């Protein structure tokens, strides 16, 4: 059986990825694929417990990075890899690029430590496509403050946001085959047109 595609959605908090994930799920199903929608940190019973700690409990930066990858390993073993092997597509709300951006960039742990963890947990395994929702800090902040109670990451100051965003954009620039950067300050209709075109492209490529 042909392996499924591993698709991830990334971006700074407030970039609006949640609403696009629901739309993407439906669009993928309409192309005739079975799709598993999941998220990080989380996606398993243990992972969701770790998520609670990660979002609300103060901890050392290295502990934070380790727990992100602990949750990720569980998620890969229990959910992502089995689904892909069964030919399903997996649509994941954040993956290791978020560790590079938030822990590596935002918290300034640097990319080398994240790379080591990545090498240990998923050597030679990367998403087939990563949609990076990008937008300027002021717009992201305004959207966040309008919506809800903020978690540990969302409460960070603007320089943290800028470093996180810059780390994402840096990764995207270095891997333009995998990343598709979406300007999240555009209208929802325009964003959907871009996503739709990209999905068609993935669909055609996966049938070859
Ligand atoms: P998020 O995906 O934004 O969920 P919600 O939309 O429900 O708030 O929340 C996850 C937070 O975890 C987000 O602020 C980014 C952070 N995070 C990291 O710092 N490193 C990681 O490796 C991952 C996966 C997430």
Verbal overview:
The protein has helices spanning 17-30, 45-56, 61-85, 96-106, 111-121, 137-147, 158-174, 188-207; strands at residues 6-11, 35-39, 89-93, 129-134, 179-183. It is an alpha/beta fold and 208 residues long. It has one domain (6-207): 3-Layer(aba) Sandwich (Rossmann fold), CATH 3.40.50.300. The model has no long low-confidence stretch (mean pLDDT 95). The structure holds thymidine-5'-diphosphate.
List the helices and strands and how they pair.
Blueprint: E1 6-11, H1 17-30, E2 35-39, H2 45-56, H3 61-85, E3 89-93, H4 96-106, H5 111-121, E4 129-134, H6 137-147, H7 158-174, E5 179-183, H8 188-207
Parallel strand pairs: 1-3, 1-4, 2-3, 4-5
List keywords for this structure.
single chain, 208 residues, alpha/beta, Rossmann fold, five-stranded parallel β-sheet, 8 helices, 58% helix, binds thymidine-5'-diphosphate
Helix content percent band: 55-70%
Provide mean pLDDT, rounded: 95
Strand order in space, largest sheet: 2-3-1-4-5
CATH superfamily: P-loop containing nucleotide triphosphate hydrolases
Low-confidence stretches: none
Distance between the termini: 14 Å
CATH class: Alpha Beta
Largest sheet: 5 strands, parallel
Structural class: alpha/beta
Shape: globular
CATH fold call: Rossmann fold
Instruction: Indicate the CATH architecture.
Output: 3-Layer(aba) Sandwich
Order of helices and strands: EHEHHEHHEHHEH
Strand content: 5-15%
Provide the number of structural domains.
Answer: 1
Determine Rg (CA atoms, Å): 16 Å
Provide a count of the helices.
Answer: 8
The count of DSSP E runs of length 2 or more, i.e. the number of strands, is 5
Write out the distinct hetero groups bound to the structure: thymidine-5'-diphosphate
């Amino acid at each position: 059986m042909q392996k499924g595609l591993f698709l991830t959605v990334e971006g700074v908090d407030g970039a609006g990825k949640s609403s696009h994930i629901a739309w993407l799920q439906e669009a993928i199903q309409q192309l005739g694929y079975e799709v598993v929608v999941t998220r990080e940190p989380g996606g398993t019973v243990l992972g969701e417990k770790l998520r609670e700690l990660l979002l609300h409990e103060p901890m050392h930066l290295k502990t934070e990075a380790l727990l992100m990858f602990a949750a990720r390993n569980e998620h890969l073993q229990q959910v992502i890899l089995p689904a892909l092997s069964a030919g399903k597509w997996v649509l994941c709300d954040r993956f290791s690029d978020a560790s590079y951006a938030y822990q590596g960039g935002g918290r300034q742990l640097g990319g080398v430590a994240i790379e080591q963890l990545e090498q240990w947990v998923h050597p030679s395994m990367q998403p087939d496509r990563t949609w990076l929702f990008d937008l300027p800090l002021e717009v992201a902040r305004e959207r966040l403050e309008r919506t809800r109670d903020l978690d540990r990451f969302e409460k960070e100051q603007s320089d943290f946001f800028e470093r996180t965003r810059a780390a994402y954009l840096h990764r995207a620039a270095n891997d333009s085959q995998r990343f598709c950067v979406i300007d999240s300050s555009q209208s929802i209709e325009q964003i959907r047109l871009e996503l739709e075109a990209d999905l068609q492209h993935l669909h055609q490529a996966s049938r070859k």
